[in-house]
Amino acid sequence: MRLSRRHPRYESLRVRAGLAEAARDGLVVPEGLIAQGRGEAFDYLLGERTSPSARRAERVAAVWLRRADRPVVSINGNVAALAAREVARLERALPSLGVEVNLFHRTPKRAVQVASTLRRGGVTRVLGVHPTARIPGLPSDRALVDRDGIFAADVCLVPLEDGDRTQALRALGKRVISVDLNPLSRTSRTADLPIVDEVTRALGHIVEDLHRVSAPPARRVFPPFDAAGALADALATIDRRLRKVAGPRWPRPSRGR
Ligand code: PTJ
Question: How far is the CA of 204 from the centre of ligand 1 (A)?
Answer without folding.
Answer: 18
